[in-house]
Amino acid sequence: MTSVSAPPAPTTTGNSLTRVVAASMVGTVIEWYDFFIFGAMSALVLGPVFFPSDNTAVSTFAALATFAVAFFVRPLGAVVLGHFGDRVGRRSPLVVALLLMGVSTMVVGLLPTYSQVGALAPTLLVLCRVVQGFALGGEYGGAVLMVVENAQAKNRRGFFGAFLGAASPIGFLLATAVITLTGLLSTEEQMATWGWRIPFLTSAIMVGIGLYIRLKLEESDSFKQLQAQAEASPATVRRAPFFDMLRSHPVEVLKSITVPLGVHTGYYMTTVFLLSFARDHGGFSVDEASSMVMLAAVSFLTFILVGGHWSDRAPRWVPMVVGLAGFAGSVFAMFPMVSSGSYWTAALAFALGLAFMGLLYGPLNTYMAELFRGAVRYTGVSFGYQVAGAVAGGLTPVIAVPLLAQTGSHVPVAGFAAIVMVISFSGLMLRRNRSNWQHS
After folding, report:
1. How far apart are CA 356 and CA 176, in angstroms?
2. What domains are defined for the chain?
3. What Pfam families has UniProt attached to this entry (predicted)?
């Protein structure tokens, strides 16, 4: 009789769920802070400093183009850091990602300007932005998995996974607060000469805190189980998680790209395009429009947690469908609300859009993790999300601006957003009840 060896006993870590959520969330907040700092400063200051031109619009466009570069590097970071996340462990790539993001952000704060070193200055700035995008590409998947793969989160993965989604609006609010405070404590001339460096250099303190917390974590419970299985059956270990993912999970890869398209399109439609629409067609100042987005970020944060909690009480796709349908319908009303000229009516439009996006984004982290089996989960979660970000985050403003300019109406822009929501809905409904939440 051939004996059959028993599977490895489940392995749990000494990490409390509270510590894991805090460590993952703190690091992710810092990474989003760094990411948003660059975006905001690109729009406000970096153009004349690194891309001087007689035409201010040209300088600003060049700086914003540098900001956009990161979107297209993020999938590469997802594949490379995802590979090590599936082969070596979830924690190590998270530490590397935080270091890369933090160091590149601090270097931006120390860069010489165009007037000092010429073309070398914008070259170094673009390089720093590439590193930022690479780091953020590998951050998302690992931070999510450290939380949802903790055994203590088993019955509430949706709620605890939503805290990682909440890191984005918190990072945005933190970045906005630091920039605002810096502006209040310096003159416009000081801000243009040396004040712009302060928000970047402030990152050093936060990165130190984040590294201290993350280095104290053990591996996730699910990855420890994977390690035990690999030791028992070395022949089953895949050397290339990315290609294994494409072979074994083609439908899930498609879902992991199409479903997040809705989040990225809705988020950037609201926080970037609608922001400029409020200035140009609503008659609001930049400060007024920015304050609307800050208020809406609170709505976003709240409904992220609501959506995550809801997804533990119902199938994950239920609150996500409500978010997609709600945004697809409300986006047609958001533009008239903003162009009404009423501050609170316009603010409500921003809050409404991000509330529906929160319902979609809240369950998304756990939903993505449950698509893939453990051996390719880091790569699968990271790659799909970042490809969607590169497509929707990079192209949404580019498509929306000419649509409005050519037609003179907001309806085609809203129609474009609604079509993307339908695409995301189609991906969500594809094998909607199938889960690959397993360790092997």
Report:
1. 22
2. 15-226 (1.20.1250.20), 245-440 (1.20.1250.20)
3. MFS_1 (PF07690)
**Dihedral angle of Cα 19, 22, 28, 30, to the nearest 10 degrees:** -120
Among residues 291, 300, 302, the alpha carbon closest in space to that of 268 is found at: 300
Tokens of 216: 């104290």
The confidence score (pLDDT) of residue 325 equals 97
Q: Look at residue 112 and give its three-state secondary structure.
A: coil
**Cα–Cα nearest to 26, from 146, 131, 137:** 146
Residue (of 421, 383, 306) closest to 141 by Cα position: 383
> Does position 438 have pLDDT exceeding 70, yes or no?
no
Question: Cα dihedral angle (217, 218, 222, 227), rounded to 10 degrees?
Answer: 150
Task: Find the mean pLDDT for residues 137-143.
Answer: 88
Report which of 344, 19, 33, 40 is spatially closest to residue 183, judged by C-alpha positions: 40
Q: Report the half-sphere exposure of 297 (CA within 13 A, side-chain side).
A: 22
CA distances from 262 to 145, 256, 366, 397, 402 (A): 22, 11, 16, 14, 20
Predicted confidence (pLDDT) per residue in 258-284, tens digit: 999 999 999 989 987 888 788 788 888
Query: What's the CA gap between 145 and 135, in Å, rounded?
Result: 16
Q: How many C-beta atoms lie closer than 10 Å to residue 58's C-beta?
A: 13
DSSP code at position 22: H
Rounded distance between C-alpha atoms, residue 208 and residue 213, angstroms: 9
pLDDT of 13 over the 70 cut? no
What DSSP element (H or E) covers 24?
helix 17-41
Q: Determine the Cα–Cα distance for residues 188 and 216; give it in Å rounded to an integer.
A: 42
pLDDT in tens, 158-186: 999 999 888 888 888 888 888 888 888 88
Cβ–Cβ under 8 Å, residues 335 and 413: yes
How open is the CA angle 105-264-108, to the nearest 5 degrees? Answer: 10
Sequential DSSP letters for 39-102: HHHIIIIIHHHHS--SSHHHHHHHHHHHHHHHHHHHHHHHHHHHHHHHHT-SHHHHHHHHHHHH
Residue 31 reports pLDDT greater than 80: no
Q: What is the DSSP string of 71-86?
A: HHHHHHHHHHHHHHHH
- Rounded CA-CA distance 140/223 in Å is 17
Give the mean pLDDT of 78-104. 91
Cα–Cα distance measured from residue 368 to residue 380, given in angstroms and rounded to the nearest whole number: 8
